[in-house]
């Protein structure tokens, strides 16, 4: 007689490990690890850049930088003062070299009539006219200077011979005719 196993259909065979599921899970684990690693690297870079920014801010706000900025501002102011003095000295030198009746009262009159943004580089004084060559920051300043010269009792008329340049840097020449040729 043979043995019949009536429970054979009900016995579950042992499961085999399926590699298809293993590779999917392995791929997700590797992908997650790569993403997490890249996050850590980027976070480290962000922290490093933030630390560098803090160092730069501390350096910029340090007292030594503020002292250097103050020194630079003082030097700029001194250079501007020296530039004005140099301009006035060149005017005086050119006037001294001229053989005319142009004196210190004329210089004072020019200084009073000159707007803040107009500068005289050269003065050519002749018996009957005064030629002023210089530079200015605005055309309006040159026009105001010319108008003020025209209103002076020393001159019959003054006219602008030419203006050239670009915004903020204009050169000009003004010729003023003296009254009575003095």
Strand content: 15-25%
**What number of domains?**
2
Q: How would you spell out the order of helices and strands?
A: HHHEEHEE
Tally of helical segments: 4
Low-confidence stretches: none
Mean pLDDT: 84
Described by strand count, sense and barrel closure, the largest sheet is: 4 strands, antiparallel
Task: Using the alpha-carbon principal axes, give the shape.
Answer: rod-shaped
The first-level CATH class of the largest domain is given as: Alpha Beta
Widest sheet: strand order?
1-2-4-3
What is the percent of helical residues? 40-55%
CATH level-four homologous superfamily name of the largest domain: General secretion pathway protein M, EpsM
Oligomeric state of shown chains: single chain
Cα-to-Cα separation, first versus last residue: 156 Å
Radius of gyration: 44 Å
In the CATH hierarchy, the third-tier topology of the largest domain is known as Gyrase A, domain 2
| Quantity of strands, as a count | 4
Helix/strand class: alpha+beta
Q: What is the second-level CATH architecture of the largest domain? A: 2-Layer Sandwich
Molecular structure report:
This protein is an alpha+beta fold and 182 residues long. The protein folds into 2 domains: 19-61; 89-181, General secretion pathway protein M, EpsM (Gyrase A, domain 2). It is built from 4 helices and 4 strands; from the N terminus they run αααββαββ. A 4-stranded antiparallel β-sheet has the order 1-2-4-3. The chain starts with 18 loop residues before the first helix and ends with a strand.
Summarize the structure.
This protein has 182 residues and is an alpha+beta fold. It has helices spanning 19-60, 63-97, 104-113, 139-150; strands at 118-125, 129-136, 155-166, 169-178.
